[in-house]
Every structure is written in C-alpha cells, then in structure tokens.
Design brief:
With about 325 residues, the chain is an alpha/beta fold. It has 12 helices and 7 strands. β2 (about 215-220) and β3 (about 225) form a beta hairpin. α6 runs antiparallel to α7 (about 130-135). The chain starts with a helix and ends with a helix. The model has no long low-confidence stretch (mean pLDDT about 85).
C-alpha cells in the first residue's frame, strides 16, 4: 500500500471514475428495458392496451342438429342407429352421466350435456375420427376422450344392456324362435346361439409382461393377436364375449378356457349352439361338418342350413370392428 498522500488521492479519484463508468454502463443497458416497461405501464393507464375478454365456448347445438339430420339417411350411417334408438340409449345412460355446470362455467364454457357425451362416444365407436368429432362438438381432445370413456362406463353399468346368455327354458325358447325365423323353411328350430372365434390384432407384449411372447403370433392369421370367443343371437347381439388366450390358441381349447363351453353345455332340453368345424362335438355344441363328412348329402344339407345361422357371428364381428 502506498503511504504517499498525493498518490492515495489519485487512487481514490481513479476508483471513483471507474465506479461512475460502471454505473453509466448499467444504466445504458437497462434503459431500453426500462423504457419498454414505462411505455407499457403508461399504455395500460391510458387503456391503449387491455386484456382480451374471456371467450365463452359454445358447444354444438343439439336441438338444431336433431332437427336437421335425424330424419336423413346420413344419421343412421354415421350413428349406426336411428334417432329413436339413440333416444332409448340416452334414457338409460343419462342418469349416470354427471354434469358439472359450475366447473364448466368457471372455465368460461357451456357444459357438455349428456346428449353430446353420448354422441361423441357413438360416433367414435362407429369409426369417426376423434379430431373431427371434437371439432364438430367444440370440445378439447382431452375432454373428448374423458367424456367417451365416461359414457362407456355408464353403458356398462346399465343392467338392461348387459350381455346375457340364455339358460332358462323361456329364454331359450325366445332365442330359438328368432333363429327359426332366419332358417330356410324353418329347418332348424332348436338353435339358441352361434359361436365363433375372433383374432383382433394387438401390439406384441414384452417378455416382462408375458412368459411366452411367441404364443401371441398366429401363423394362420400372420399377426400378433389374442383369441376372443363370442356367442351371438339372431339379431347379431353378443350374448357372451371373452378373451380366452394368445393368438396361437386353438378354438376348441379357447372355448373351454373362457368358460363359454360350460354355458353351452348347461342349456336345457335339446337346445344347441351351432359352431364352425374348428370346434369339437358335444351334447349341446353342434359344429358344421368338414372333410369327407361334408360330402355326405345329409351332412351337406345341415351345413347349408347351419351356415345360414352361423353367419350371424361373422356379421356381429364385422359390425363391431368395421369403421363407417
């Protein structure tokens, strides 16, 4: 340290000059930002810049939609049902579909009414694009899938819509009458159900989830899939549906694994279910003939009449899986 007083004064003056230069530099850098802040503040005070008001979203007008489309052929093609059936389905699920009007109004939007929830669900299940339906109804993608699965859960809770395999004599008689009306010259009078397997394609599971990954690849279908067994009535409605196992499982084993065979063999009297030739013959399970047996005239006749009924299972799978 220099003890000379003259030198100390010079050092102090140099430090003061450096400090003043630093202050000027900081002020010069902050000046543009301070100017912008001052401009915005002044503009807000003079109401030049103001916040845009909240936008109140308007949902699709359901009444206008019905008055315009419910009597047109496009409605049935898009919804897979007439307007009257939609109203019946709505009456079942409407009490189960919650409506949080307070929460909707808090977000500045009109509530999503049960009619629109069911519309979104049916259109999506019928093959409609989720983005197109969401834009049409004017809901976000997140809200769309939320209301779709909320509606699916509501439908599954309705007792009147649950799948039911006939087991009492009265139920079997009613189911057999429906199939008899489809049979040529009422040739088959004791069929209450038709059964078939279906192999929906899936993403191959990892080894950490299943023990045998290869079992899910079906050589016949040439894809990764699962074996689904289903029973269908004369109106193409599912009486039973269940995932039996991986894709390479044979149908005659799958029907046992999912419990459907027990339901069929518990049928009363001489009522039966008709299956394709991949299944085994049982007391109440009647498969179609194949191989050399189908060359026999009376076996060929049965295959003709039985196929008229069994095709209902194929129709049901097509209706459930084909997009609009």
């Amino acid at each position: 340290m220099n003890n000379n007083p003259a030198c100390q004064d010079l050092d102090a003056e140099a430090e003061e000059e450096d400090f003043n230069e630093l202050v000027d530099l900081v002020v010069s850098c902050r000046a543009p930002a301070l100017a912008v802040v001052a401009h915005v503040s002044q503009a807000r005070k003079s109401n030049v810049i103001c916040r845009s008001p909240s936008v109140k979203e308007q949902r699709m007008d359901w009444e206008s939609f019905l008055s315009k489309y419910n009597s047109k052929p496009e409605y049935i093609r898009h919804m897979r049902m007439p307007a009257e059936d939609f109203d019946v389905l709505l009456s079942y699920v409407k009490p189960l579909l919650t409506l949080d009007e307070k929460q909707s109004l808090r977000r500045g939007a009109t509530p999503i009414i049960p009619e629109l929830k069911l519309y979104c669900c049916i259109r999506w299940l019928a093959g409609g694009s989720y983005s197109d339906v969401a834009i049409h109804v004017n809901v976000s993608i997140t809200s769309f899938f939320r209301v779709v699965w909320e509606t699916v859960d509501a439908i599954n809770k309705v007792d009147a819509l649950k799948m039911h395999f006939p087991h009492t004599p009265t139920e079997c008689f009613s189911a057999a009458e429906a199939f008899t009306s489809l049979s040529y010259k009422s040739a088959i009078t004791n069929c209450v159900s038709v059964i078939d397997g279906y192999n929906p394609e899936i993403k191959c599971p990892t080894r950490s989830k299943v023990g045998n990954v290869r079992a899910f690849f079906s050589g016949h279908k040439q894809k990764n899939c699962v074996n689904v067994q289903a029973a269908v009535d004369a109106y193409c409605r599912f009486q039973f549906i269940g995932v039996a196992g991986p894709g390479n499982m044979r149908d005659r084993e799958a029907i046992k694994r999912c419990g459907l065979l027990d339901l069929v063999e518990s049928l009363p009297g001489n009522y039966v279910a008709i299956l394709d030739c991949a299944y085994a013959v049982k007391t109440h399970s009647v498969p179609l003939f194949f191989g050399v047996d189908k060359l026999t005239p009376w076996c060929d006749n049965f295959n003709f009449y039985g196929s008229q009924l069994r095709i209902r299972s194929e129709m049901a799978f097509t209706l459930a899986s084909t997009a609009s």
